[in-house]
Please model this.
Amino acid sequence: MITKYDDLDIRCPQLGHPLNFSYCRSTHNNTPCRNILNCWFQRLPVERFVQDHFPAGTIEKLTTPPRPKLQSLVELIEKAQAAKKNGVIPCHDMKQ
Ligand code: SF4
Model:
């Protein structure tokens, strides 16, 4: 049952206040926070929980380090330069 651990609470290192496991398992469009394994491994079988309740690639996503911000920034600059060269504005990369 996906709600089995929902009432357990923890102090969130990112938000700086207590919250329930229900928040951690559903932070990003009903997918787990990317820190869920680190935050909860001492309190419950969180890896098993994720494997049981989320698609196969979720554990891989949670254990893959995020791309460095500098790399993302360089890629955005390269796209913008290419778009400028071609006379196209890459609107899909811009947040509204
Ligand atoms: S899993 Fe994410 S939301 Fe939950 S306590 Fe850790 S950092 Fe905060």
In short: The first helix runs from residue 21 to 24. The first strand starts at residue 9 and ends at 11.
